[in-house]
Write a structure and sequence with these properties.
Rossmann fold, alpha/beta, ten-stranded mixed beta sheet, globular
Length: 337
C-alpha cells in the first residue's frame, strides 16, 4: 500500500486500450489497491468531545444529532464554477450534511455518479476517504481541478479518487464490503433529451423568482453507456443492477443515500413520473432496506413558471422539491424489511 507522500512522487502512466482511467489530485494512476486506504500520516488532535471506538455511526454529539434529524431540509452554499458547468450538481452543504450523519472521520465514501466531485470534495474536507465513478470526460477534467476554496480546505492525508468508467462496472473496482457510506444523485433516464432548454415562454409578470431564471441542464453525453440516454424501462432495470452492485460493496450497516426529483413527460402524455417511488422498489428488490425519506425544499432556488392557462382544465404544480432517499444494508442477524 503506498502512502500519500509516496503517491505524490509517482509519475503518471499512460493507459492504453480501453482500460478505465483512475485519477487522484489531477494525476492519472495506473494501479491502486482499494482494499484499504492509508490512514493519516500524522495523528491530528481531535477537536470534539466524542471518543470513538470504531463502532459508532458518526461523531456527532447529542445536539448535532437532533438538529440534523429534520425531515424537511433546505441547503444553501456557494455555487462554484464547476458546479455551474455541471448544471445539476447538488450543493456541497447537502453532501456535508449527510456525510456527517452517516459516516465518521477515516471512513470511505462512494459516489457512483461522481459528476464534478461534490460528494468527494465534501468527504475530503470532512476527513474521509472518497472515491467516485464518472463516465463524462468534461466532468473528470473539472474534478481534477481540485477543491474550490469556497467549499473548504482540502486534506491531503485522505484519498480523493475518481474512476473514469460506467457505474455499472462498479464491481470491477471495489472489493466486497469495502465502502462505509454511499451518496449520489443519478441521471434521470432520457429526461434531459425531452425537456426544453428554457421555460421563458411560461414566465409571468410579478414572478418573485424571476431573477433566478437559468438554463436547464443539457444531456450529459451521447455515449451508449450513459444512463441518461436510455428509456425509462431500461433505466429501471439498470438501476436495479447498480443497486445490487452497491449492496455487495457496502459494509454491513452502511447507508446509501440518493438525491432524486420526480418529473413530467408531457411529450408522451404522462403528467407525473414517480421516479422516487420506482427507485425505492428496485432498491428493495436488490436487498436494500428503505430507511428514511427527507424532503429537500428547493422552492427558493427554482423559478416559478406557468404550467397551463387560466382557461385550462388542467393545473400543474411547480415541482420545487427533491426526495432524498435513505437506504440501509442490514447487519448480520438484523431482519429489517
Amino acid at each position: 500500500m503506498i502512502t500519500a507522500k509516496q503517491h505524490k512522487q509517482i509519475k503518471p502512466y499512460i493507459i492504453v486500450d480501453k482500460e478505465p482511467l483512475i485519477w487522484e489530485d489531477g494525476r492519472q494512476l495506473y494501479l491502486i489497491d482499494f482494499k484499504t486506504f492509508e490512514k493519516p500520516i500524522e495523528k491530528k488532535k481531535i477537536d470534539h468531545t466524542i471518543v470513538l471506538n470504531g463502532h459508532e455511526l458518526n461523531d456527532l454529539n447529542g445536539s448535532d444529532w437532533t438538529i440534523h434529524g429534520k425531515s424537511v431540509q433546505t441547503f444553501n452554499s456557494p455555487i462554484t464554477e464547476k458546479r455551474k458547468k455541471h448544471g445539476a450538481a447538488f450543493p456541497i452543504s447537502l453532501a456535508k450534511h449527510f456525510i456527517k450523519i452517516y459516516s465518521k472521520p477515516g471512513d470511505t465514501i462512494l459516489d457512483p455518479f461522481a459528476g464534478v466531485g461534490t460528494t468527494l470534495d465534501a468527504a475530503n474536507i470532512l476527513k474521509r476517504h472518497s472515491i467516485g465513478v464518472e463516465l463524462n470526460d468534461d466532468f473528470i477534467k473539472l474534478f481534477n481541478q481540485g477543491i474550490d476554496p469556497k467549499d473548504g480546505k482540502p486534506n491531503f492525508d485522505y484519498r480523493r479518487i475518481t474512476i473514469q468508467d460506467s457505474a455499472l462496472n462498479l464491481n470491477k473496482h471495489f472489493p466486497i464490503e469495502s465502502v462505509d457510506f454511499i451518496l449520489t444523485s443519478p441521471p434521470y433516464a432520457n429526461l434531459l433529451n425531452k425537456i426544453r432548454e428554457r421555460f421563458a415562454d411560461k414566465d409571468y409578470n410579478g414572478n418573485p423568482y424571476k431573477n433566478q431564471s437559468r438554463k436547464l441542464t443539457k444531456p450529459y453525453s451521447k455515449q451508449e453507456e450513459d444512463l441518461g440516454n436510455v428509456t425509462y424501462e431500461e433505466y429501471l432495470l439498470k438501476m436495479k443492477e447498480l443497486f445490487l452492485s452497491l449492496h455487495q460493496v457496502a459494509k454491513q450497516g452502511a447507508y446509501n443515500t440518493w438525491v432524486v426529483r420526480d418529473y413530467r413527460d408531457m411529450e408522451n402524455s404522462i403528467p407525473y413520473i414517480n421516479l422516487h417511488s420506482d427507485l425505492i422498489t428496485v432498491a428493495q428488490q436488490a436487498g436494500w432496506v428503505m430507511w428514511d425519506i427527507i424532503i429537500w425544499d428547493q422552492s427558493n432556488q427554482r423559478k416559478l413558471v406557468r404550467l397551463g392557462g387560466n382557461k385550462s382544465r388542467r393545473y400543474y404544480f411547480n415541482i420545487g422539491h427533491s426526495f432524498i432517499l435513505v437506504f440501509r444494508k442490514n447487519m448480520k442477524d438484523e431482519k429489517f424489511k
